[in-house]
Specification:
Strand content: 15-25%
Radius of gyration: 14 Å
Helix content: 40-55%
Distance between the termini: 28 Å
CATH architecture: Ribosomal Protein L15, Chain: K, domain 2
Number of helices: 6
CATH topology: Ribosomal Protein L15, Chain: K, domain 2
Number of strands: 5
CATH class: Alpha Beta
Order of helices and strands: HHHEHEEHEHE
Shape: globular
Length: about 120
């Protein structure tokens, strides 16, 4: 059994396990490696999961860019650009600040439905 499969089977959150399996399935169907990359990052230890502040999105993202955070988006900092951010979870303040700047807050599953080929997506940790 592969190490990846062992890591997924140890997860106790059924929604996370289903998301990881769906991401891998999308990779097999479409041949898009970005979904596999996100699945690998989500399958790792919770302590190593990304926690990205809005200030980092403001600093590095371009206007109207699509960003994926394979972890939690936190509300520290300000954001002035309209960007689309898909994350596993959002803090309430991060979601409010992002939407007030004209951006969109999506789940990873929603983004996968909108962009099944994975093109134009940037992963940020």
């Amino acid at each position: 059994m592969s190490r990846f499969r062992e890591r997924v089977e140890r997860k106790t959150n059924p929604q996370l396990v289903a998301l990881i399996k769906d991401l891998c399935g999308e990779t097999r169907e479409r041949g898009s490696p970005v979904w596999r990359d996100i699945a690998m990052r989500l399958s790792g230890p919770t302590k190593k999961r990304a926690a990205v502040n809005l200030s980092k999105i403001e600093k590095y993202a371009k206007k109207n860019e699509v960003i994926v955070v394979p972890g939690k988006l936190l509300g520290t900092g300000i954001i002035t650009k309209p960007v689309t951010v898909a994350a596993y979870t959002f803090s309430r303040s991060a979601r409010e600040k992002l939407e007030s700047a004209g951006g969109k807050a999506l789940t990873i599953r929603e983004l996968m439905a909108q962009k099944p080929d994975g093109s134009g997506i940037r992963i940020m940790e």
